[in-house]
Amino acid sequence: MKKRFLIVVLCLACVASFAQTKKRSTAKKTTTTKKTAAKRSSAASKQSSSMADTSKKIVDAPITADPIKPFDRPLDGYYKKNNIINNKVTPYANIRESDVVFAKRVWEEIDLREKVNAYLGSPKARLIDVFMDAIAAGELTAYDPIPTKEDPNGDAFATPLTPAKAKAKLADSALVESFDKKTGEKTGSKMVAGEFQPDSIIKFRIKEDWVFDKQRSVWEPRIIGIAPMIKQKVEGANLALDYQPAFWIYFPAARQVMVTKEAFNRNNDATDLSFDDVFLKRLFHAYVVKVSNDKDERIKDYAVGIDRLYESERIKKSLMDWELNLWQY
Fold it and tell me: How do 287-291 and 186-193 pair as beta strands?
């Protein structure tokens, strides 16, 4: 009898514990389902909000927007060019006077009408625009090319010019007459600078030193100054005058400006070629117009016509031969 009673008690206890376990699992499933549904709804809302934000960034401003108010300008391309903006000037190696074995001063001219130099006058990136913007901003100083007692050749950076005077050197001047408003009589006249045309600058003159450094065993040219060329005009006379420097710019100072200005490359838009690279790597063609000599003569003073070009090439070859003659094999 006792055994039967114990068996009944154990069965009742098992049934009670099974019922409690089932209730707990059902409650857990319910709470888990509720949490999962809440997470899914929150994720869906976040996704919809992010999609809405993205669409706001991509869509352009409405046509009826006020042009005076600031707006987010779209990026012109799929990446932003920062390398050229962050460029730094690569300094020249220091040269001691005692290490200079041979030196020669040379004046050369770069003609933008030549195909190899045409990119320096490209409307997308003009060299003269880089110089004029820097002069107007006070980043560069222009120097007067008029010869003086202290500067017989006018290229020793002796007389600085104001930005207005430098721009007037490049602009065409015109004689403007003034009249009296009441009587209409002529009261005088004055020269007024016209508008500057960047396309009118088709030549640049550079002054450089060819130096052999025995410490490094290097024979290299280093540009000292650069000048845009203009053709002078004489009022009332039809004369064919030669191109003359409008003003001189100290090249080591100009490098700080040119290093962050991109030059146009006809072959590849992703080269990040700066104007400083153009002159440092000699990516241009120039012809010699003068070399230092005892009579201070220019090539045109003793050569005419095609002989000028032959003389220019002869001087270039003599400079190259000087270096080659140093070595023996």
Answer: unpaired
Tokens 């070595």 correspond to 327
- Rounded distance, CA 66 to CA 9, Å? 87
- Counting beta carbons within 10 angstroms of the beta carbon of residue 65, is it exposed (0 to 12), middle (13 to 18) or buried (19 or more)? exposed
Q: What are 214-257's pLDDT values in tens digits?
A: 999 999 999 999 999 998 765 555 666 789 999 999 999 999 99
Using an 8 Å Cβ cutoff, are 114 and 285 in contact?
yes
pLDDT at 182: 75
pLDDT at 53: 45
Question: pTM of the full predicted structure?
Answer: 0.72
pLDDT digits over 11-33, tens only?
766 666 655 555 454 544 445 55
Under the banding of pLDDT at 50, 70 and 90, the label for residue 288 is very high
Is the residue at 65 inside a domain? no
Residue at 9 is within a domain: no
Q: Determine the Cα–Cα distance for residues 321 and 328; give it in Å rounded to an integer.
A: 13
Structural domain containing residue 241: 97-171+198-324
Element (H, E) at 33: helix 2-58
Question: How many domains, the chain?
Answer: 1
- Of the candidates 259, 229, 249, the one whose C-alpha atom is nearest the C-alpha of residue 110 is 229
Residue 81 counted as domain residue: no
- Residue keyed to tokens 């838009």: 269
Listed in sequence order, the residues at least 6 apart from 161 whose beta carbon sits closer than 8 Å to its beta carbon are 141, 142, 143, 144, 169, 247
**95 — phi, psi (to 5°)?**
-120, 125
Report the C-alpha gap between 127 and 226 in whole angstroms: 11
Is 159 within the bounds of a domain? yes
